[in-house]
Amino acid sequence: MRLPARFAFAAVAVLLLSSCWWVGPPFYTGDPADAGPVGPGLYKIDTLGDGKPAHVYRIAWQPDGTIVFTPLGHGKDESAWSSVMTRFAVPGRDLWIVQEVPAADQTEVSYGLVERHDDELWATPAIDCDSTAPIVRAAGGDVDEPEAASNVADDEPMGTSNEMQADPGAPAKGGGATCRFRDRASLERALRAYIAANPRFAERIRFKRIGD
């Protein structure tokens, strides 16, 4: 499947995962009065622990509730992108579901999570499917696995004693499974199970407001 739309808080590692992500129809619409955990404005944003300098972004809320992230001064290859965030009620947590904004030709979007901690966000902007397949299945989602590749050389006769057949029920080498949700209820069951199993999200992003 296609990579999810670039998300302001995603580290490069997220985009280079060997597998795909949690996807489904766009279940959520933005709330222009409560569009996300970070208000509109100009911010210096620093991904903690990656050893890279902070970058400047303008965060804007649109009338339809989507959030637009515009990088400033990052080079010619950078462009604005947008997401929908909706509050996710979990006792004792300040959580938001992150939904990719679909392109015109797109029927599925990716899903992730962020949590506000003072001037930081803890984030899992795209959830890996290969490592969470049991959670997805238990919640009522589907796991689409690529066909397993055979370890047999193309020129080796079939049926020989040293033939090594791949397990037809196993994902292909390198991963690549996609987790799909057909309804919002199964997605949210899976998200709750994911949060219980992963109470601390991997990414830490610090925001410093520097202007309107």
SSE string, helix = H, strand = E? HEEEEEEEEHEEHE
Mean pLDDT: 81
Multimerization state = single chain
Tell the overall outline.
globular
- N→C terminal distance: 37 Å
The domain count comes to 1
Précis, in short:
This protein has 212 residues and is mostly beta strands. Helix content is 12%, strand content 31%.
Task: Jot down its keywords.
globular; 3 helices; 31% strand; 12% helix; 212 residues; mainly beta; 8-stranded antiparallel barrel; disordered N terminus
What's the layout of helices and strands?
Layout: H1 12-15, E1 22-24, E2 41-47, E3 55-61, E4 67-72, E5 81-88, E6 95-100, E7 109-117, E8 120-124, H2 133-139, E9 142-144, E10 178-180, H3 184-197, E11 203-211
Helix pairs in contact: 2-3
Can you offer a commentary on this structure?
The structure is a single chain. The chain is mostly beta strands and 212 residues long. The protein is globular and about 45 Å long. α2 (133-139) crosses α3. Strands 2-3-4-5-6-7-8-11 form an 8-stranded antiparallel barrel. It has one domain. 12% of the residues lie in helices and 31% in strands.
